[in-house]
Amino acid sequence: MECEAYLHGDEASHAYGGKTPRNASMFLGPFHAYVYKIYGTSFCVNVTSEAPDVGAAVLVRALEPVDGLPLMRRRRGVDSLRELCRGPGRLCQALAIDLRCNGLSLLSSSELWLEAGEARKRRIGLSPRIGISQAAHRRLRYYEVGNDFLSGARHLSP
DNA sequence: AAGAAGATTCGCT
DNA sequence: GCGAATCTTCTTA
């Protein structure tokens, strides 16, 4: 998995300017889904990470496909395993995540939830976030070193 | 009230 | 590599 943190007081965060109709689910308290449409075409999913009324979330940028491969291939219209969930918009399409999922509690929803993955040794790398211009120097992107299912061209140092 | 930019992806060159 | 698709927000008039 690959993700990026968007913190309280972070210029690059959608919550930086306060609560709006679009980012309202960033303020629901931890472990809620914040889903938004980007460039009118793709969806991105975040997991909220702070107490209620504090706008912060973690953007899921890529996943390693494990289960439900035929269904995800059908939704994506792509055969390549590597391209199924590589990128925030792509993984939303593969998992059928859209605005209906916005605001769901990941602890109590039967639509969208988190599960523990395979137990294995992982090295977590840090790098600057991808695709932003504000606060672009901050190393708030987290990824599994050596994993083949990462977005972005650059896999920087751990 | 209108226009530009954005946590993107896809298709064409 | 470049541009289109097309929605929300922020800036400018």
Descriptive report:
There is one protein chain. This protein is α+β, with helices and mostly antiparallel strands. Helix content is 12%, strand content 20%. It contains three helices and six strands; from the N terminus they run ββββαααββ. The protein has helices at residues 69-76, 81-84, 88-94; strands spanning 2-6, 33-38, 42-48, 57-62, 124-127, 141-144. Strands 2-3-4-1-6-5 form a six-stranded antiparallel sheet. Strand 3 and strand 4 form a beta hairpin. The longest helix is centred in the middle third of the chain and has 8 residues, at 69-76. The chain is globular, with a radius of gyration of 15 Å. The two termini are 15 Å apart. 30% of the residues are buried. The structure holds a DNA duplex (13 and 13 nucleotides).
Quick overview of this protein structure:
The protein is of the alpha+beta class and 158 residues long.
Overall pLDDT? 93
Low-confidence regions: none
What structural class do helix, strand and pairing data support? alpha+beta
> What sort of overall outline do the alpha carbons produce when their principal axes are compared?
globular
Strand element count: 6
| Strand line-up in the sheet with most strands | 2-3-4-1-6-5
CA distance, first residue to last residue: 15 Å
- What series of H and E elements makes up the topology? EEEEHHHEE
The largest β sheet comes out as: 6 strands, antiparallel
